[in-house]
Amino acid sequence: MTSSRSGAGRGVMKSLLIQAWLPILLVLLWFFASASSTSAYWPPLERIATNLVDGIFGGRLWGDIIYSFTNYFIGLAIALVIGLTVGIAVGSSAVLRNIFMPFLDFARASPPVVFVPIIILALGIGPEPKIFLIAFGCVWPILLNTVEGVRAIPASVIETARAYRIPVHFRVAKVILPGALPQIVVGVRIAITIGIVMLIVSEMYGSTQGVGFFILQSGMSFALADTWAGTIFIGIVGYVFTALFAMFEHRILRWYRNEAVPLSRRRTRRMDGLMAEIQGEAAQRVRNSQP
Amino acid sequence: MLSRAVRTRTGVVVARLIVALLAIGCWQLAVSTTLLPANVLPAPFSVVESFATQIISPDYWKAIGDTFAGALLGLAFGIIVGVPVGMLTGRRPLIELSTRFLFDFGRAFPAIALIPVLILLLGRTTDMKAVVVFTAVVFPIIVQAQHGVRSVTASIEETVRSFRIPPHLVVLKVMLPSAAPFLATGFRLGATIAVLVSLGTEVLTGAAGVGAELGEAQQGGDTPLAYVFLLTACILGFAVSAVVSFAQDRLIRWQTEGNED
Amino acid sequence: MSTSSPIKDVGTLRAVGVQKTFGTGSAANTIIADLDLELTPGDVTCLVGPSGVGKTTLLRLLSGLIQPSEGKVFLGDRSITGPVEDIAVVFQDYRGSMLPWMRVLGNVEFPLQARGVGKRERFERARRCLELVGLQDNMDKFPWQLSGGMQQRVAIARALAYDASILLMDEPFGSLDAQTRFELEELTLRLRRDLGITIIVVTHDIDEAVFLGDRVVVFGGRPSRIVDDVAVNLGREREQLATKARPEFIELRTRILSEIKNNGIPTSSVRLP
Amino acid sequence: MSTSSPIKDVGTLRAVGVQKTFGTGSAANTIIADLDLELTPGDVTCLVGPSGVGKTTLLRLLSGLIQPSEGKVFLGDRSITGPVEDIAVVFQDYRGSMLPWMRVLGNVEFPLQARGVGKRERFERARRCLELVGLQDNMDKFPWQLSGGMQQRVAIARALAYDASILLMDEPFGSLDAQTRFELEELTLRLRRDLGITIIVVTHDIDEAVFLGDRVVVFGGRPSRIVDDVAVNLGREREQLATKARPEFIELRTRILSEIKNNGIPTSSVRLP
Amino acid sequence: LVGCSPDTASSDGGAGAGDGGAEITDIKVGRNPGGFEATILADTEGFFEKHGLKAEISLGGDPTTQIASLVSGDLDIAMTGGPDIARAVAQGIPVSVISGAKSAEPDFDGEPTDGLLLPPGSPIKDWSDLEGKTVGIQGLGSLPQLVNNIALTENGVDPATVSYVNLPVDTLMEAAKSGTVDAILPFSVFFLNAVDQGFEKMGMGAREFLPGAPQIVWAASDSYIAANPGVIEAFVAAMDEASQFAGENPEAVRDVYREYSKFPEDFIANRMVLEPLTVVSYRDAWTKMLDAQFELGDLDHEVSVSDVLLDSAP
Ligand SMILES: Nc1ncnc2c1ncn2[C@@H]1O[C@H](COP(=O)(O)OP(=O)(O)OP(=O)(O)O)[C@@H](O)[C@H]1O
Ligand SMILES: Nc1ncnc2c1ncn2[C@@H]1O[C@H](COP(=O)(O)OP(=O)(O)OP(=O)(O)O)[C@@H](O)[C@H]1O
Ligand SMILES: [Mg+2]
Ligand SMILES: [Mg+2]
């Protein structure tokens, strides 16, 4: 870790450069390879970018974006609550696990697209069925990882909690949840992006707006530059969400990496902001992986 | 001791049966009360009937084979590529940082929205299905593997370093077992995602398989048949995932240290 | 024993006809067979025996963490089927028993918080207990930032803070230097004398066992049973140097030492690698 | 020291001007300052000092697991920047250092396998080392199926099997009963005598330190430094009872005991909770 | 970048078509889930063979995937919808219509099988009542939607005030009954089912508002057409004969559906309306459709019939 300000600044720059070189290279490659393309399926990157920028800064897509991502966050939140609750229950009880795991695996394997008719009849064509589908897609990675995370908590820790008769709600909040957290965050990380894909799927039927609707509609209209623009936008959003979550993850899993920040410095630390987090994480990983 | 184990095992089976019957009961109830009309949710019995006719038809098995082929091919490549890539990027921060955008972008990139482009590239073949499946499963597996290799505890890390264990053994004997719970979860997620995506692609493109049959049954208004294929899909996904679970319990025996309730 | 001091009596902790077998079928391994043990309230009982004999297993049985394969454990006339509020445990695996996501203070406070003790009070109590083990300056460190001995003391502080009437300690001073160990031995005796707590200490240090105990139980055999049950008649007031110099002490020490026969590591006969 | 026996000499392990600080900025905490230490090849050096003084940290520095903040560690004239082949370590956290997915045998064999030792030979060697610590009957158990002391012995067997010239042991006998401990102390002396291995033992047991050591290094202070460096002139041949009865032994023991002053737990002045 | 046509076994056999030619050309044909009887009959009754073709018929996906399959060379000739291919051509995708397959025959007097349906008891009585309402459809941008928009315009309602939502076919009817949508635009089996369940027709669908509309067309990629003019010609000829054969042999058609579709037997035997099939395109209907598409913003620039439909097409 660097101690001086300018040192930290340099570290941030370095980390950003490391993160950026490959995407930049690929974008450049794509740009030149597609520049003279006449195929409707492979529009020049320039045109895709123009459409994307127009769509977002021209405000054309804002309504769709807000609609879709409202559904997305509600769905993700529901998945989180259900995934954690069921995951903790099933993970901490061998009996429940034995009985219910096969059913959960079965439900997990059911194609949501096929349930759409029932969902639409039950929930209509408003945001509800979309939220349902997003939650349905997101819940599984969270649930499975929670189950496995809870099972992986060292027996000695569980035994301690039992010996001190920690009541259930406390045990969940202070022992099981933090203990399983390293694996839970993995589930959430995966759910974040699965949710985005489900967002598209959810707007295939019964929709009149939304980013997914826009992408599907443009595909159907053979406006593939728009389709590309939409999918790239979705990809970038996926990156941004994951990056934001990584910051959060970095913070809550500090103990897991054996990295401590003194209590007194916690607050100032927050103000160092995003860059410091990214840089800190990078430096930490470098340190952890010394041969 | 033994009798107790048997009792609990039969107990589990009975409990599972009860849950299954309850679920089917709810289904029947929803149909009987016409909560959901029969052309949306057929009665369980009519589905079973339809199942019986399908199960003897070779076309049914061929469809399953087609769906499986795409799913397993994609999953296999997803594992072959995802595990090493995840382990490498999980341990090497420089590579991880370099590929971070690509991976996070790729994970959210909805390949399904670009199916026309994929058809253009690969045609409506098993390969195309496998590619779509691959793009869907590889990233979850990478993420699981990344976090898995970071789960090696500090004490073990130090032990391994002090005994100068060479990298290949560290990977095989330390990182893989330590990451096993993470990897197994990745495989189980991947297994069902693979079947779902394979099926979804078939529904969307009409490529041969359970999905195409299902789409056709829906188009033809034969709802019980559609449910047969729906259940088939569930069973396929469940089967793949169960195989992975079984292997997990077999291979990760040390985990039995676990918290017995 | 002498009973001039207060005794926190919540009933006698008793093991009756206890047997413990791990595994089933051909892998079955009976560790403890047919054990009867009654712990006098207000006494310090020390448990000694060779490595792997089943001391930890017995402690886990007594605390209700595991159930006997046969027989029962009673506290007073309650049969113990799970951990009870009156018992605090210091685990042999003190490292594993720390919650790594909590700081030292949090680890000590946690059982109190779970019990609903108010914020101020539990902080006060945790602080006092950490002070008792000499860790008042390390309250906001994480467990992995502490040395082995410090972690062990955190585990002791946590058990003390829990304010139980019965304290089960599994090799609680194993990782401590002589000086700190002496201090904590004194503390143990104070706990008994001033608070009347019933204490069980598993230890490998025979001197320690005799010095601390009102009674020393010697474990041995396979499956293990009580080989000897020695009353220590050194009085309640003990002192590191004076007590250990008394002839009764030396005598007891020699007697117990001669009784701990483990399964015999034939070290000297094995060729070095 | 006497040098009639073979010495596996791979160079002298030396710490030169070593300082170790954990944390940065306001959280910086200097544990070891300005330490010079040279370990005579073929000797047993015992390291004693109060809990939390930095003994484990020093061992990790010497083994190359962590790097000094200032100064250097040398083995012969190589500067150590990472673990070297000639050094085996028994960790204080013996539980954590077991690979839970390997059986006992696997854990002991693993470093050998890593070194490319053939299947037969490494089994033979692992088996012999497990026999040395009395665990030949527990080779195919998983670590969590063992008692604390048994796990500790597995860690010792693993280090022995590694066949290094320098053995760093961090409280290796802390969880063992008196009898087993004696056996392993004998084993340690045999290792030095018959194989000429250079051994460093961190211990809290002063008797053990004097009994085992050709030299006892007393650590203390904050940041810690060498308080005393005592040569133990009890000869190479030692015997549990006879040696410990010698007046030189008693004298050294008393001297070292008086030097270990920890930061003083004012236990007796703190009110009990 | 385009024109990649992997494993197009037939690309060299263009000249070998024609009556009774010694050479047989393999073609890969993609069909729809409905309206495909002539295609099957052309195969089973030997019309393809007669014209020197050997067809490998497979079930395709939605119009978008069908068109992509044509461009990729995965299919040589495929069924698709009129409005869909018009959009594709407008966006510069190199495909063209080589022939009609099924049109909304103005002279056919059987029961219509497409159009707007209102659930029983619907408050909607008139086109003007549709303003601000939601209509459930089967595939966005399909012909029924376009036809309905034409109907709305002709009845003085601004189509922009009506919203269309894509629904899975089997929910259309229930969605309307439960009030999730106000009206539906099904076709084929779902249309007839709904009618039997008491749904009310409003208008007569394509037959009334876009007579002769190209409901199903045959398309091929421009590169395939250029390389295999003879195959196209032979294919159209074979399909022409097969369509006539289908018109004359209703029982053969029903048998095709029994074997190749998943329609229930009762429907096939008693309820199915056998609409006439023809390879002929109604160019005035095409013009009207393309104009309407442009006016409704479905096409971003004007497209003429000759851009989409081969001049040589019947
Ligand atoms: N979960 C378990 N499964 C199987 N065997 C076990 C288990 N736990 C303990 N044992 C066995 O029980 C025996 C006694 O173990 P225990 O931990 O009680 O010994 P101990 O007396 O505490 O020894 P130590 O002094 O070394 O800590 C050992 O032989 C051990 O192998
Ligand atoms: N990773 C770390 N980060 C911060 N401080 C640490 C870290 N490791 C050790 N320390 C501190 O260094 C000091 C010395 O620790 P060390 O483990 O070397 O002590 P020790 O002499 O081995 O004690 P013990 O006999 O109790 O094992 C302790 O005060 C501990 O808090
Ligand atoms: Mg024990
Ligand atoms: Mg230490």
TrEMBL record, chain A:
Cellular compartment(s): Cell membrane
Signal sequence segment: none
GO terms (BP aspect): transmembrane transport
Chief location category: membrane
PROSITE patterns referenced in this protein's UniProt entry, alphabetically: ABC_TM1
Key words of the record: Cell membrane, Membrane, Transmembrane, Transmembrane helix, Transport
Positions of transmembrane segments: 72-94, 106-125, 131-154, 175-201, 228-248
One of the record's GO cellular component terms: plasma membrane
Topological category with respect to the lipid bilayer: Multi-pass membrane protein
Residue span, ABC transmembrane type-1 domain: 65-249
Pfam families with a match to the protein in the record: BPD_transp_1
Similarity comment: family membership: Belongs to the binding-protein-dependent transport system permease family.
PANTHER family: ABC TRANSPORTER PERMEASE PROTEIN MJ0413-RELATED (PTHR30151:SF0), ALKANE SULFONATE ABC TRANSPORTER-RELATED, MEMBRANE SUBUNIT (PTHR30151)
Protein name (database record): ABC-type nitrate/sulfonate/bicarbonate transport system permease component
TrEMBL record, chain B:
Gene3D superfamilies reported in the protein's UniProt record: MetI-like
Domain ABC transmembrane type-1: residue ranges: 64-248
Keyword field contains Signal: no
InterPro entries attached to this UniProt entry: MetI-like, MetI-like_sf
Annotated GO biological process: transmembrane transport
Predominant cellular place of this UniProt entry's protein: membrane
Localization: Cell membrane
SUPFAM superfamilies on file: MetI-like
Key words of the record: Cell membrane, Membrane, Transmembrane, Transmembrane helix, Transport
A single cellular component GO annotation: plasma membrane
A Pfam entry, by short name: BPD_transp_1
Membrane topology: Multi-pass membrane protein
Chain ranges passing through the membrane: 12-30, 68-89, 101-122, 128-149, 170-197, 225-247
Keyword Plastid: no
Family: Belongs to the binding-protein-dependent transport system permease family.
PANTHER family: ABC TRANSPORTER PERMEASE PROTEIN MJ0413-RELATED (PTHR30151:SF0), ALKANE SULFONATE ABC TRANSPORTER-RELATED, MEMBRANE SUBUNIT (PTHR30151)
Name used for this protein in its record: NitT/TauT family transport system permease protein
The organism of origin for this protein: Homoserinimonas aerilata
Automatic annotation (TrEMBL), chains C, D:
The keyword Ribosomal protein appears for this protein: no
Keyword Nucleotide-binding attributed: yes
Highest taxon of the lineage: Bacteria
Protein's UniProt name: NitT/TauT family transport system ATP-binding protein
PROSITE patterns in UniProt: ABC_TRANSPORTER_1, ABC_TRANSPORTER_2
Chain segments annotated as transmembrane: none
The species this protein was found in: Homoserinimonas aerilata
Keywords, sorted A to Z: ATP-binding, Nucleotide-binding, Transport
ABC transporter domain location: 13-246
Family matches, as InterPro entries: AAA+_ATPase, ABC_transporter-like_ATP-bd, ABC_transporter-like_CS, ABC_transporter_ATP-bind, P-loop_NTPase
Coiled coil residues, start to end: none
Database matches in Pfam families: ABC_tran (PF00005)
